[in-house]
Structure formats: structure tokens, C-alpha cells
Amino acid sequence: MSIPFRSREGSQRPSASNGIKLKMPKNKDKIEESVLDMTLRPTRWDEYIGQKHIKDNVKILLRAAEERGHIPEHILFYGPPGLGKTTLAHLIAKETGRQMKITSGPAIEKVGDLASILTNLAPGDILFIDEIHRLNKVVEEILYPAMESGVLDIIIGKGPSARTIQLDLLPFTLIAATTRVALVSSPLRSRFSGGVFRLEFYSHEEIGKIIERSSKLLNIVLEEEALKEIAKRSRFTPRTANYFLKRARDFAQVKAASAKNSGVPKQKSGNILDKKIVIDALNMLAVDDIGLNSSDRKFLEILIEKFSGGPIGLKTIAAAMSEEEATVEEIIEPYLIQLGLLERTARGRVATKKAHGHLGFEFKEKQEKLS
Ligand code: ADE
Asked: What is the 3-state secondary structure (H, E, C) of 72-111?
């Protein structure tokens, strides 16, 4: 298999000879998503909306390192998918004029993979490891001295004749990202001496600004009410907002073309999005007016109908949905919790009164006491 490799500009270079592996997106949606991310990705701090706390801290860290003539220390970003962890890493590379090499936890299978990546870095490079929580233990232990002292300890041979050789590495900054910080071991976490930063969901206003910026970059004329509709359903997440914007544009384009073919007069151009077009497009994607998709609704319906609103354990509800626990925990639940539709209690998951109301279920007294 070729070895896909991305430079900091985000271009894809096939089969670099340095042995770096990058897991490619598995399906078409993901490929499209990453192309979209690249087009709309902010390239300067002042273009990056929201996450002020992180921006302020990282900017100081970078500036101080530059003034001392050092490379920036290692940084860990965590939080739900789509909030901009990778975007921040790209931005740091761009703003500091460094090259960034990208890989991911599951792509680094063996110690040799990591050794090859680290020994191929140029001085001052940034190494970005996505999904760092999926790094295996043996590889993780090689990373400790590399992060802390800039050395690579390699064991050669087996049994009594085994010996360790130590290679000096060129200075590098590791930026890592995870959706599951609890699965990152504390020895690894503590080595991110530049900071461990949690990305927060965006406010309505911030999402609105991101949609506005993206629509300009994509040459879309977005009416005010249409923008509000997209923002309302975007799960406080830029990736979702941008995805909806593009899908609404597709929808408008196809509708405009078929109207023109059938001779409908005064049809709006495919690049003009009004409230109706956006609502129709998002309804077609089965996204409701608070941004719940069919998986979110199925989760709540099962919780309410099969398990009387909870409390119920993660394993049980994931099995009832035929869904992986990680998907439930990382993708479905954070937004439901953010909206106040779900609570994670010591005894398990509980659907709130608001969740019952939203889906049209009666809320019973038992649940009132629990939630
Ligand atoms: N696109 C994705 N995330 C963004 C952000 N935080 N600011 C601006 N544009 C974005």
C-alpha cells in the first residue's frame, strides 16, 4: 500500500519513502469532509473563531518559545469531534512557519514505525498525532523519552543478549489530539509540558460567524434567516455547520437546475440560499430543528421506551442500538448532554424531562426524582 503523507499545507503526497503511515479516511463522506475542512480551514489566528482561552494560552506559549529561541513544548488538544483540534495544529504550524507531519495513533503499529517517523523529522518540525488514545502501550513507552529528553531508546535483540541503543533526536514539537482524554495514560498526559487543552462547544454567535465566513469562501449568498437555521442545527460544531452549508448548496443547485429545465420562472440561482431551501435540505438529511439526527433520536427513543428513561448503563444502551460504545459515548452523548436532554449519573444514563418533551413522550414522576 502507498504511504499517504500530508505536508502542513494539507496537500497529499503519495508514498513518501520515510515510512510514515497515515490512516486514510475509510469512506467517501470522510474524504469529502477532509477536503472541505482544508478549503475552509482558517490559516491565521485572527480567522480562527472561538476557543479564546486556548488561543490566548497557545499564542503566549509560542511567542515565549520564539523569544527564547526554543521550539514550542508539546501540546495535547482534546474534546468532541469536529471542534477544530486538527485545525489548531495546522494553524500553529502555519503561524510558526514550521513543517507539520501528520499521523495517527492506530497508524503507528510498531516501535519501528514511530522510530522511522521521529528520525525523519527535520529540526523544529511539528509531529501531529491524531487519536493518540489509540497508541499501543509499547509504542507509547518509546514516546516518553523522545518527548522528555529528545532521545530514542531502541532495544536490539531478545533475551540475555538484548541491548539498548540510544539515538539523539532533532528537536521537535508533538501536538496530539484525542476525543477520549480519559484513555490517555497519565504518564503520557503529563509529558505534554506545553499544556493540555479542552476544546469547548461553540456558542451560537461563534457558529454564525463561522458559517458566514465559510459562505463567503464558497461564494454562497446566504440569507440571514437561512444562516440562523443552519446555526440552530449545527450541534455547536464547525464541522457540522460547514457540512450543512455545503449540503444546502447542493440541494439548492439541484433544485434550481431542475426548475430551469422544467421552465419554472424566477427560480433563485443555486448559489443563493434562503430559509426554505435550508430547511428543506436539512429535513432531507433527517436533522431536526435542534440539530438531532436519526441516531440521536433513536438513542433517546430506546432510552425512554425500552428502559423507561433510565438509568441504564452504556453497554446496555449501545447493544440495544447495535452501535459501538465509543460512538455512543463520543459522538451521540456529548451533544445530548450539552442540550440538557441526557444526564450521565452514577447509576447510568437518564433521559431528562426536556428529552421526553422534545420527542413527545409523557414524563413520569419516577424520572423527575432521578434527573
Ligand atoms: N472552520 C472550522 N473551525 C473554525 C473556526 N474555529 N474558526 C473559523 N473557521 C473555522
From this structure: CCCEEEECCCCCCHHHHHHHHHHHHCCCEEEEEHHHCCCH
